[in-house]
Amino acid sequence: MELILVRHGESTWSRQEADADPPLTELGREQARRLGQWLDAHYQFTAFYSSPLRRARETAEIVNKELGLDIVFDDDLREAEVNYAAAMPRRDGPLAEEADRAPFGAEYEQFRSRVRRALERIIAANPDGTVLVIAHGGTVATMVRCLLGVHSVSISTRNTGLHGLRWQDGRWEIRFMNRCEHLLPDLARD
Q1: Do strands 162-168 and 171-179 pair parallel, antiparallel, or not at all (unpaired)?
Q2: What does the alpha-carbon distance between residue 100 and residue 123 come to, in Å, rounded to a whole number?
Q3: Domain range holding 91?
């Protein structure tokens, strides 16, 4: 099984415009268009999942113009509704073991549990093949943390940045993080 996890394109929220469920900007739509072309040239997906929130849904629909798949919109792939970063576990030092971390705070535990439920459904339904998931920065990062079992790690995710993980021989292999060559040379922005 291979998972390709992608953050949505740039939204108006990224430009500091307040909206509970913001749409993509024109740049975000172009990022999604290029992402769709790049994914179509490099992968044959067996399943496609997306958050139902507008910025992820728009990204998925634009990407799907190239892929032509059935998209499963999963409510558990939504972004966190609260800032959970302060509730994430921390380690005592840079080489401290994950087991020595502080427990999860309630905000992170609720979000982590929701994201894990989505992952469990996705993996159960797709034990083989290549699965595309389009969601949000926090959701994608939490999916990676859940897969690796390491929650005291922050993971940056760029707009339409791809993270690739493969389950093989009883372990997850990180194939790449924040891959963005589909945006080069002119659309690669944080």
Answers
A1: antiparallel
A2: 29
A3: 2-13+21-183
What CATH number does residue 124 fall under? Answer: 3.40.50.1240
What is the phi/psi pair of residue 77, to 5°?
-90, 5
Residue 104 lies in a domain: yes
CA distance linking residue 60 with residue 65, whole number of Å:
9
Phi, then psi, of 141 in degrees rounded to 5? -60, -40
DSSP run (H or E) holding 40: helix 26-42
Number of domains composing the chain? 1
Beta bridge partners of 131: 3, 47
Q: How far apart are CA 117 and CA 4, in angstroms?
A: 17
The token pair at 141 is 């990062």
Domain-embedded: residue 189: no
Q: What is the pLDDT along the chain (190 residues), one digit of tens a residue?
A: 999 999 999 998 755 656 678 999 999 999 999 999 999 999 999 999 999 999 999 999 999 999 999 999 999 999 998 888 888 888 778 888 776 566 678 888 999 999 999 999 999 999 999 999 999 999 999 999 999 999 889 999 999 999 999 999 999 999 999 999 999 877 766 5
